[in-house]
Amino acid sequence: MASVREIARQLGISAATVSRAMNNHPLVAEEVRQRVILAMNRSRYVPTVGRRETMNIAFAYTGEASIGSPFDAALMQGMSDRMEQCGFDLMVLDLRRAMLPRENYTQLFLRKGIRAAVLRTTAATTGICREIAAEGFPAVVVGYHFDDPEVNYIYSNSYSGSCEAITHLVDLGHTHIAISLHVVEDSDHTDRLNAWRHVLKQHKLPVLDKFIIRAPATLDGGAQLIRRIAAMSPRPTAVYITDPLVAVGAISEARQMNWNIPGDISIVGFDDSDIRFMVYPKLTAVCQDARAVGQEAFDTLNRLLNISGEDAKTTVFRRTLATHFEVNGSTASPGKASL
Amino acid sequence: MASVREIARQLGISAATVSRAMNNHPLVAEEVRQRVILAMNRSRYVPTVGRRETMNIAFAYTGEASIGSPFDAALMQGMSDRMEQCGFDLMVLDLRRAMLPRENYTQLFLRKGIRAAVLRTTAATTGICREIAAEGFPAVVVGYHFDDPEVNYIYSNSYSGSCEAITHLVDLGHTHIAISLHVVEDSDHTDRLNAWRHVLKQHKLPVLDKFIIRAPATLDGGAQLIRRIAAMSPRPTAVYITDPLVAVGAISEARQMNWNIPGDISIVGFDDSDIRFMVYPKLTAVCQDARAVGQEAFDTLNRLLNISGEDAKTTVFRRTLATHFEVNGSTASPGKASL
DNA sequence: CTGAAAGCGCTTACAG
DNA sequence: CTGAAAGCGCTTACAG
């Protein structure tokens, strides 16, 4: 509903200046530009194609794009599930590459006809999410969460699922339980580590630093992990591998070394989609429903688009989804081979 | 460059009529509407956001959307590799759901600010591709190919890769070689079947209809396949599984039945991305580079966008990419177990 | 750096 | 069903 003229009226300036501020024209006072950006977002200004409103929702990478990954594919699928019936379209965007020199994020989104954005973020790029939130542009962060009072996020909490997983291993009789983490620290992996610590302590089992193993989040990282475990003494009899590809790579390498799974080592993996069913034995895993995260993310944007004015600046949407723990064939009591 | 006014001039009608034809206004003669659509596409009319040209390229599903699949993810990744440096954006679209009642495809694309489209198609929806081509909209088909003189496609030819695969099995000493195909017929699977027939005949091996097995393209389809193979007599000692998920499911089920791979059965799979490395033993496979298909598809659109006038209607782009055959651990001579 | 006014490209009553 | 003219929303010389 908000037009350039309307925003001009609100701010007591001319439509020409609003237009210039929106389009990053160099001859606009920085202070005016910022007021216009905030007013645009507060009143949910909508870009138009001809005389028609655009209907694009971005799936935007703030850092390195990882379009091909199963997690991202599932997120997009979830978004798309909800979007098309509302007439919205999914646009995939690499923010860093798309950005023009002196542009801010709202201007970038406007230029591309984007009404709201799902932000795919990692620890290194949380700053971009904060900036977008500060500009007031409707956005929600997925795949990472952090505590900024302006940032909306959908977060899949892996703490409780991870507790179940470690408890399962303890119940099976394991006392030497390792955990593998991505070399890059992030909030989700921290949850998984905390769960591991918590359950081991709770059962008065030793919490050894050397059982915290870091490996890159790739198939090869899984191979490295198994070779490092093989060299340990005492050797862990079970490991919680907090990344999907690493778990798959570990299974492959363990078989290569003629280990029986779960006889020689029990493995609990982590799954974003359905990779756990692709390996043999099928992975016991903590599972995150990335598709549901994508659905929730779009639903949140839809709600954000329907509020404007002061509420737009003060309403924060945060939703935590549960992970679930699923027992398959890769775990058993220590030394007990599969059937 | 072509504006509504310019198209009006070309056709000797008013800009008002052109606008109405483009926007599917009911009060336009059907014949006029079609001439406008053709002229728009011939002169590469570009929709605008405000006064700026839109830069969207669609990844459009003509049939059932399969956003989450590894093949589609790799295609999108390939497109995106090439697009962002040209300033284009990737929009994901489910054509059937996006379409308004009396609209044609060009009108749909225009409404969404789309300049050109990569069409993801299966046998059931080739008609849609033909229609889009007939309207003259810049588009290229991927994942399927068929011989319509107006349709552009990028096609990964699996015939020669499949011949190599079957020859490899024959060279290893296999004489009972089965092939598994998707329950739904399509051009790519037909290539793979023809290769199987050709090489067996060439080596004077029996080409048995009962060794042509159809299974749904899922993990469970792979399990069904192995159970059916187990029940056969004489039992094939090798199978060429022409779908990625089926091959992975088959490995899993074979291990479940305590078969040694490749000792009890050699498996050649088919891979779109890097699923072949996720299983143990790693799959010997015919590999299609879906990412390269995506890259080529965008490059083709880029070329299409740069030609207009009569050429736009008569130039057809068709490109065939090669598959390559890669030997990994899932094949060996009959009866010879892995190390 | 800003505004009043002209301009752009497209759309839409209005008249036929 | 079509066109001439007015209108819409935004942008852009022009003047200060």
Describe the structure in your own words:
2 copies of one chain form a homodimer. With 339 residues, the first copy, chain A, is an alpha/beta fold. Helices cover 41% and strands 19% of the residues of chain A. Chain A has 3 domains: 45 residues, Orthogonal Bundle (434 Repressor (Amino-terminal Domain)); 132 residues, 3-Layer(aba) Sandwich (Rossmann fold); 132 residues, 3-Layer(aba) Sandwich (Rossmann fold), CATH 3.40.50. Chain A has a 6-stranded parallel β-sheet with strand order 4-3-5-6-7-13, with helices on both faces. Chain A is elongated. The model of chain A has no long low-confidence stretch (mean pLDDT 92). Chain A binds a DNA duplex (16 and 16 nucleotides) through helix 2.
Brief descriptors of the model:
homodimer, 339 residues, alpha/beta, 434 Repressor (Amino-terminal Domain), Rossmann fold, 3 domains, six-stranded parallel β-sheet, DNA-binding
In short:
Helices cover 41% and strands 19% of the residues of chain A.
Strand content of chain A: 15-25%
Q: Gap between N and C termini of chain A, in Å? A: 66 Å
Label the CATH architecture of the largest domain in chain A.
3-Layer(aba) Sandwich
Helical content band of chain A: 40-55%
Going by helix content, strand content and strand pairing, the class of chain A is alpha/beta
How many structural domains are formed by the residues of chain A?
3
The name CATH uses for the topology of the largest domain in chain A is Rossmann fold
Molecular shape of chain A? elongated
Radius of gyration of chain A: 24 Å
Strand tally of chain A, please?
A: 14
Major sheet of chain A: order of its strands?
4-3-5-6-7-13
Oligomer: homodimer
- What is the count of DSSP helices of chain A, taking H or I runs of 4+ residues? 13
User: What is the average of the pLDDT values of chain A?
Assistant: 92
Point out poorly predicted stretches of chain A.
none
The major β-sheet of chain A equals: 6 strands, parallel
